[in-house]
Amino acid sequence: MTPAPLAARLSIPSGPLFFPVTAYGPDGSLDLDAYRTHVRRGVEAGAAAVFACCGTGEFHALTPEEFQTCVRAAVEETAGRVPVVAGAGYGTALAVRYARLAEAAGADGLLAMPPYLVVAGQEGLLRHYREVAAATALPVIVYQRDNAVFTPETVVELARTDGIIGFKDGLGDLDLMQRVISAVRTETSGDFLYFNGLPTAEQTQLAYRAIGVPLYSSAVFCFAPELALAFHAALNSGDDTTVRRLLDGFYRPFVELRAQGRGYAVSLVKAGVRLRGLDVGEVRPPLHEPTEDHVKQLARLIERGYALLEEGK
After folding, report:
1. Residue range 197-228, pLDDT digits in tens
2. Under 8 Å between Cβ of 177 and 211
C-alpha cells in the first residue's frame, strides 16, 4: 500500500513529532549504531514522525556526506512506519544540494531552515524557498526563525507554491502568526500545515493551539518520551489537570534550566538522552556541553517528571 502524502500523515499526528539528536563517538565521528537505536526507540515509543538532522540533530555541524548517511539510517529504522523529514539549509545552492541528498536517501519531506547569515528581503526569501521546493519532489515545510521572518503576504505566496505544504514558527510572535494564518485561510484554497517550532514547544503550545497551530516539535521526547506522550495526549483530550501538572512541575523548570546556557536547546537534550542510558556523545563545536551542576539538575528534573506521571494515575 502506498503511504498517504506527507501532509495527510502529519495533519492529525498520533503522537509527538520526534527530532532525534545526532550521535557521535568518543572521537567525534558519527556513531550510527547509537543513532539507529535512538531513532528506533523513538518510533517504537510512539513518535508520529521523525525529523532527522534538523536543529536538535545539529544540522549545522554535519557534512553533506554525514547528513545523507543519517537521513538514510533514519529512513531504514522507521521502515515506513512514520514519515521522515530531513533538514535543509544554508544558501540556496547548498540547500538544494541537501534537499537532493535527502531525496536520494529516501526522506519523505524537508524542513527548510533559514538561509545562512544574510538578512534577506521578502522577495529574496520567497525566491530562495521556491527554488528549494522546485529542486526535488519532496514536500517542504518552511521554518520561520532568526533571519527568516515572513510577512503574511509572503506566506500566502509560499502557500501557493507547488511543493510547500507548511510553515513552522520558531519566532514566537503570536500576533504575526495569527495574521499569517488568517491571510492564508482567506487568500488561498486548500490546507496548509502550521507547527510550533519554539524550543520546548510544549511550554507555549496552549497559546499556539488557540490560534490554530495544532502541531509542535518535542525535543523532550528525545529523552523522556513518556512525559512527551502524556502531555500530547492530555492536550488533545482536554485533560487540563494533567497539562497543568506537567507544565508547572516539569516543563517550566526545564525551560528555566535550558535558559541557563546558550545552545542548551540542543546540548541539554543530548545530556538528557545520555542520562537515560544511551550514549549519544557530546555536541560538536561551536555548541558546548552543559555544566556538571546543570546536568545534575536535569537528572533530578527528569525524576520529578516521571514522579508526576505516577501521581496522575
Report:
1. 999 999 999 999 999 999 999 999 999 999 99
2. yes
> Would you state the torsion angle of the CA atoms of residues 219, 111, 32, 276, taken in this order, to the nearest 10 degrees?
0
Average pLDDT (298-311) is 96
Active-site residue identified among 24, 35, 98, 143: 143
For the record, the C-alpha cell of 82 comes out as 512514520
Give the integer Cα–Cα distance in Å for 15 and 1: 22
* Cα–Cα distances in angstroms (integers) from residue 40 to residues 20, 75, 84, in the given order: 10, 10, 12
208 in active site = no
The rounded distance, in Å, linking the Cα atoms of 259 and 1 is: 45
| Phi, psi torsion values for 141, nearest 5 degrees | -110, 125
The cell 496548509 sits on which residue? 192
pLDDT tens digits, 165-204: 999 999 999 999 999 999 999 999 878 999 999 999 999 9
Contact 139, 163 (CB under 8 A): yes
Whether 296 sits among the annotated catalytic residues: the reply is no
Q: Can you tell me which residue has the cell 529574496?
A: 124
What is the predicted pLDDT for the residue at 189?
A: 84
| Whether 107 contacts 86, CB under 8 Å | yes
- Interatomic CA distance for residues 186 and 253, integer angstroms: 39
| Catalytic pick among 35, 98, 168, 216 | 168
Assessment of whether the complete model's pTM goes beyond 0.70: yes
